[in-house]
## 1
Amino acid sequence: MAAVNPWRENRLPDRFPAIVQDAMVIGLFALIAALVLQERVFATTAVGAVVVGFALQDTLGNLFAGLAIQIEKPFRVGHWVGIGGIDGQVTEVTWRATRLRTRSGHFVVVPNSSVGKEVITNYSEPTRENRMEIQVGVSYDAAPNTVKAVILDALRDDPLFSGAPPPEVVLAGFDASAIAYDVYVWTTEFAFDYRVRDRIRSRIYYALRRHGISIPYPIQVEQRGEPAPPPPAGPAVAALASVAILAPLTEAQRLDLVETGRRLLFARGEAIVREGEAGSSMFVLVAGEASVTLAGAEGELRRLGAGDFFGEMSLLTGAPRSATVSAASDCDVLEIGVDSFRRLILGEPSMVDAVASAVSLRRAELERHRTERVAGASVLPEAPHSLLARVRQFLGLSPL
Ligand code: CMP
């Protein structure tokens, strides 16, 4: 083509693409020939035109498709594209074909007429960022929010994918031997996506390992109905030791409470108890933070941390839950049922006073919050001795 158009080598591909230059040069030649040869050119027979038309069918098809590509500009030289299932970087658009260089370094020549018919994916437009997906299967023993946090932390600050938007991790499904997560990262390294995938997978592997979270082998575990092993009692016993109202309990009684209670995990944002619902158990926060809120009131009534308790009001009086307590972070809680609690109280009646006065203080704060923050609320606070009487009656203890 350089013979037809000697200026082509110096072209500026984006502003004057080769094919357009060539078309202009040929058009110029045709015009000059028409002027010089005049009517002899136009005297070509109709049969001759048809024959030439047929002979040039493919060539003209490619030429016009190539011109259409230049006008429409679905891609430019240098862009990464996918055409008919082949990914590559556009190196040239000529009369006949579009040349791609694949990731493996091969040249693929796609006739322009095929380019015109295929679906084209341009990976370099509208931005150079491409989203990559990586699947990872993680042990059922690890809580999803923990896994997500560990993975996101592992992917922080890596120049290969630190741009915007930030990485995301979603729980994709419950597979035979693992919980499946999809990890999405955005990267400009389209040409080297295998390096990006390698980096992500390696980082995830090391981070999960550091946190004691396993990536299970793809094996089929035959479950014979045995319950999962209980979580270690130590942290729950330690949490109970810091609950003021349970201070009189011995170590053995605390252990008993842990063994008869239920250990539950709540994800950040989940409600643990809901205002107005019936409830017959109390909770001790073993780990995490919980937020106490009232319907219709802005802001938190109180933030609870590890070693705090809640849900005792309904447990002690049988009244509906006075507030909503939800997990402000992922929470590990010990739920103590009314029967275990009643058994303890009967063995240690001195606890009743401590419990009732703690409840009375909380109630006063709750009602203050309600009158201040809930429009139209007015509450008559219950006298402490009446609350104590109610608690004793509910627990089946003799009146004072
Ligand atoms: P219960 O009424 O069973 O359910 C809601 C719980 O919110 C309630 O028990 C208390 O444990 C807790 N709660 C209510 N008011 C307060 C408060 N002022 N401070 C801390 N916790 C509270």
## 2
Amino acid sequence: MSTIDPSKIFDHAVEVLKENDQGGYTVPTKGLYPFQWNWDSCFTAIGQSHYDEERAWTEIETLFAHQWPDGMVPHIVFHVYSDGYFPGPDVWGTNRPVATSGITQPAVAGFAVKRLYERAADRGMAARRAKALLPKIEAWHRWFYANRDPKGEGLVAILHPWEAGRDNSIDWDEAFERVPTEGIMPFTRRDLQHADPAHRPTKEQYERYLWLVQHFRSLGWDNAKLHDASPFQIVDPGFNAILIRSSADLADLADTLGEAEIAVANRERVSAGLAALESLWSVRHGQYLCRDRTTGKLVESASIGGILPVFAQIPDDRAREIARTIERQAAAAKFIVPSHDPADLRFESKRYWRGPVWLVINYMIVDGLQARGETAIAERITRSSLDLITQSGFAEYYDPMTGEPCGGRRFTWTAAMVLEFLRMTAS
Ligand code: GLC
């Protein structure tokens, strides 16, 4: 049964984006997520560029206005007080002029800014605003390698599952067992008031999320200390691939705008990162895997994190293998791309990042596959993404087996990605 008339999808998507726009920044969805989220905003800006270029630049500028002095760009900016979300600013205790969280999120900004720049009708405005953002994004990239790759391996680690943006992925399960739960403050989750508990992370996971936050807070959020002090250090291929892609895009943009030093620094990170990524390849799974930096071992968990590297310039044969892996998964799921391999017994079709389809992830995969000439599978993912919208509306994520909408509704980044998918089908 269709809930949205296909010819009205564009207008609906714009309506969702505008309704979540708080003026200067956009919330992911009302209720469940009442603040500004880092990677959500970068995807949102790409969506906004379809109908309001000026507003799109502002979305990213607002995010970077809250960059930390050391270069980190926080994963949440708590612009206005709301008690509808846990953990709020008092739990993070980061002592910033405008409250923020103390961890980061996937580095989508470099990619997003290049995209805004390339398609800008107002070339003068685009050059001016991109040029002002360049050193800020460069500082963030520099921060990543200085603080999250202390031994210079070429790959950065995440220290909290929320940094990957894939909160409760199966990828973290084993390492997460090592995170204690003793001594955490009593807390009340707010997410369960807005979403079905069966679609969300578990209580034990929340306790560990919180333990890490309290631990980092006790270290004064000093990024020079956090990496080595964290019992959770995961090298996620997807997270790294996004950073590598953004570094490549930032380098191109820097060349265009006459910032040679930024271009050189980012190109070096790209070549070191791509070389190091190869150590995460799994022949058995036909995709990349995470590495647990505390044990040095690859994590036996075939998630979307290991498919995402197609978004970066990985070798052609790897991209081909990944396309075949997605085709295999497509035979087991009605909608693609599931966030975890359905053949894995741990797969859960409705639980957040343990199986459901997310449109932002599909978008990055499609972009990468198209660049490699894997057009048939790229088109199939695009079609699947738009079918989910007509069947189930602009949900946060979807059950790959049934297409059922899950999590929050009228979701900003889903709407933004729909505008991109529509553009792809039109060209
Ligand atoms: C959830 C997602 C994360 C996203 C946030 C806001 O925490 O896991 O990736 O940024 O919601 O949409």
